[in-house]
Amino acid sequence: MEPLEPPPTDPDTSARDGLVDALLGEAAFSGWTRAALATAASGLGLPEGEADRLFPGGPGQVLAFASRRADLRTVRDMEAAGVGRLKIRERIRLGVRTRLETHGGAPEAVRRALAFLALPTQAGLGLKLLYDTVDAIWYAAGDTSADFNFYTKRAILGGVLSLGGAREDLGLPRSSHRGCDDHREGEGPRQGLDVPGDGARRKLTWPILRPGRASALP
């Protein structure tokens, strides 16, 4: 994958960070629009036209910047947590939880972002951001596959992230995704995704942790 670090010589990185943070707050009320971007810039005291200079692509470019920044922070958090000492399933689970729970964004801003990415003109961007996130998690997990597994791993994890994002970030009840929850004795509900394997369908699952409770992947 491409290096996750932003160009070190970009003098506008901090300005873009501040504007993204401001828009994340504004988008929860006004959506991901150029008007919201202008309002966020005005709130920071930026001169007129500065928002368009920093993000000439408008809200879509802001979302891409915010998503890539969250991917970078997820990778850093995984490395800080000692991801290399974990089993592979635990590494992926750590990545999914870190990305969704720590760097997923405020629920209302995420709802508005998903609505924006659902527009026909933004479908390609949504898929690219999802792939970049999945690739970042596998990268941090130490994946070195270069064959068909490279694609199947990312396709499966993309489904898991999509399911987790819709369920957690949109505030949907867990029962709204039929067939995606199951239980094991002594554990809480488990999020899952049915995937083909060995001539049958199996369920890729991970426990939903409650506060103060630790668990590992199955």
> Helix count?
8
- What is the CATH architecture descriptor? Orthogonal Bundle
Arithmetic mean of pLDDT: 77
Low-confidence stretches: 166-218
Number of domains: 1
Instruction: Describe the strand arrangement of the main beta sheet, using strand numbers.
Output: 1-2-3
CATH-defined fold name = Tetracycline Repressor, domain 2
**Nearest-angstrom radius of gyration?**
19 Å
* Strand composition percent: 5-15%
Q: What distance separates the N and C termini?
A: 28 Å
Extended strand count: 3
Order of helices and strands: HHHHHHHHEEE
Tell me about the biggest sheet? Answer: 3 strands, antiparallel
Assign an overall shape: elongated
Please describe what this structure looks like.
It is a single chain. By secondary structure, the chain is mostly helical. It has one domain (13-207): Tetracycline Repressor, domain 2 (Orthogonal Bundle). The chain is 56% helix and 9% strand. It has helices at residues 13-30, 34-43, 50-54, 59-80, 88-102, 107-117, 123-140, 148-169, and strands at residues 181-183, 189-197, 200-207. The protein has a 3-stranded antiparallel β-sheet. α1 packs across α4. It is elongated and about 50 Å long. The two termini are 28 Å apart.
